[in-house]
Design goal:
Elements lengths: L10 E2 L3 H14 L8 H21 L6 H10 L10 H21 L2 E2 L14
Antiparallel strand pairs: 1-2
Helix pairs in contact: 1-2, 1-4, 2-3
């Protein structure tokens, strides 16, 4: 009797959607730096970074935690950092690059794909 072949799980990018959303938030946030709506940008950026942090921990991708935790700390709305507007602009662009970079390059195994047959249907 032959054993069924076990294929390695497919690699997925779970952080791609929140990474793109985070980049959009930070790019749009360039327009409201120093304004009253900047706190909403801080909330959105911090929450999206923490969502991506959960995906990195679940996938055991420890190196990707560094930029995500940095984003969560810098854009923390509970204890906000008081920085110059020029520095905020630069940080927004760096944060945008970090969101996109982590979203594109952090790949984790899809454990749900091992319970599907070749047609994508569950067994």
């Amino acid at each position: 009797m032959t054993k069924p072949k076990r294929h390695p799980p497919e690699l997925i990018r779970p952080g791609f959607p929140p990474g793109v959303l985070g980049a959009i938030v930070l790019l749009a946030g360039l327009a409201v730096i120093g304004g009253e709506f900047f706190v909403y940008v801080q909330y959105a950026a911090c929450i999206l970074a923490l969502i991506m942090t959960v995906f990195a921990v679940q996938g055991r991708k420890w190196l990707w935690l560094l930029p995500l935790i940095a984003i969560a700390v810098v854009w923390n709305p509970v204890w906000p950092l008081r920085l110059a507007d020029d520095l905020w602009s630069s940080l927004h662009l760096l944060g945008c690059a970090a969101f996109i970079g982590v979203g594109v390059f952090m790949r984790t195994p899809d454990h749900q794909s091992s319970s599907r047959d070749g047609d994508g249907k569950r067994r």
